[in-house]
Amino acid sequence: MWWPKSADVELRIEPLKYFVGDPHDMKDQGRSTRKRTGGRLKPLRKKKKYELGNQPTETQVGEPRFRTTDARGRNAKIRALTTDAANVTTGDETASATIQDVLENGANPNYARRNIITKGAVIVTTEGKARVTSRPGQTGQVNAVLVDDE
């Protein structure tokens, strides 16, 4: 880095003009670099863009907030960051309900404590207990089926 020699010259660091992006936003989903025995695998080729993935969107219960991300083929994914509405189905009827709490989540036991909604989570709604059938981090909405209280 260049430093000024005289004291009367002011050193000024300019902020970035363009948003470069956080390297933690992307996730490499290519081949592992280690063998099952712990040995090192040599790369067969360089990393490809289609092997990149994103960090999981951990949809929480709260005031609705959404984010759109680019997907393959000029498509867009609507990611639900927080939501409080669910489409609850009982047999032939579907009603909109308000999500109150997350009872259990099979994906991760800590998700229930943190009120994170994923597919398969059991939520408490104004209609009753329901199991989530959609992927809120991928579709942006919560669809659920009412379950029996046992």
TrEMBL record:
Single GO cellular component term: ribonucleoprotein complex
Basic and acidic residues composition bias: residue spans: 22-31
InterPro entries: Ribosomal_eS8, Ribosomal_eS8_CS, Ribosomal_protein_eS8_arc, Ribosomal_Se8/biogenesis_NSA2
GO terms for biological process, alphabetical: translation
Gene Ontology MF: a single term: structural constituent of ribosome
Biased composition (Basic residues): 32-49
Keywords for this protein: Ribonucleoprotein, Ribosomal protein
Region Disordered: start-end pairs: 21-63
Quaternary organization: Part of the 30S ribosomal subunit.
Family: Belongs to the eukaryotic ribosomal protein eS8 family.
HAMAP family for the chain: Ribosomal_eS8
Protein name per the record: Small ribosomal subunit protein eS8
